[in-house]
Automatic annotation (TrEMBL):
One of its GO terms (molecular function) is cyclic-di-GMP binding. Residues 107-215 form the PilZ domain. The lineage of its organism: Bacteria, Pseudomonadati, Bdellovibrionota, Bdellovibrionia, Bdellovibrionales. This is PilZ domain-containing protein. It holds the Pfam family PilZ. Gene3D superfamilies: predicted glycosyltransferase like domains. It comes from the Bacteria. It comes from Bdellovibrio bacteriovorus.
Length: 229
């Protein structure tokens, strides 16, 4: 069975935010704050006010020195469900205060295809076609743990159903993900481009976990970039 992809669902209603935060406080859930060095800092919440500000004890083993403009991400879990929010920590003598700016429910979905945002740098480069070395750059349209859809120029290669491909997936400036798969669908988009449907073979290349991690990170980047705009 394929690994579930994590999908970000925004929680925009203030009453829903307050209910979740109060539940986390009642269950004495630990908040995990990630700093710019990607270190996880464990915080114990003390209280939550009506403005969705969480007052926490100082971490036991870490000294926090932050600028109020520094942006952090924080996460907590309730009943096995994980939540993530953006915050600018304010450190005082006795407490660390976290204002919840954007709250997301991280939902696990199987066979979910994530459509790449427009103008986002997402590329699928075929390096081997039927075990013959090549270099065919394609635009990545969507991606899941099961496979992907890509656009390729018609003149780039002589392609057929069941062709074997080995490729690298480039998402922004992240490390490339190596994948192997089979072309399961070919359709004409227009006079110059084809759309390929590729089914991955994770037994040949253990790329599934890397896809899940990269897409989770990409969604965090996209959502927080939109909120900052």
């Amino acid at each position: 069975m394929s690994e579930a992809l994590i999908v970000f669902k925004a929680i925009g209603n203030d009453s829903d935010k307050q209910m979740l935060l109060q539940k986390a406080l009642a269950k004495k859930e630990t908040l995990y704050l990630r700093d710019k060095f990607d270190r996880a800092i464990a915080l114990k919440p003390v209280s939550i006010n009506s403005n969705n500000q969480i007052k926490c004890h100082h971490p036991e083993d870490t000294t926090m020195n932050t600028n109020e403009k520094d942006t952090f991400t924080a996460s907590f879990s309730i009943g096995g469900e994980k939540y993530l929010f953006e915050t600018h920590p304010v450190v005082s003598e006795h407490y660390v205060t976290l204002t919840v700016l954007n709250l997301f429910h991280l939902q696990r979905r199987r066979n979910y295809r994530y459509v790449m945002p427009e103008n986002y740098s997402a590329e699928f480069v075929i390096n081997y076609l039927n075990q013959s070395i090549c270099s065919h750059p394609c635009r990545l349209i969507d991606l899941s743990t099961e496979g992907c859809a890509v656009e390729i120029m018609q003149e780039s290669a002589n392609l057929h159903l069941e062709d074997l491909v080995e490729a690298e997936i480039f998402l922004g400036d992240r490390e490339p993900i190596m994948v192997q798969g089979v072309i399961k669908n070919i359709r004409v988009k227009d006079d110059t481009q084809l759309v390929l449907g590729v089914e991955f073979n994770h037994l040949a290349n253990s790329s599934e976990e890397k896809i899940v991690t990269s897409l989770t990170d990409l969604q965090r980047e996209i959502f927080f970039r939109r909120k900052a705009a």
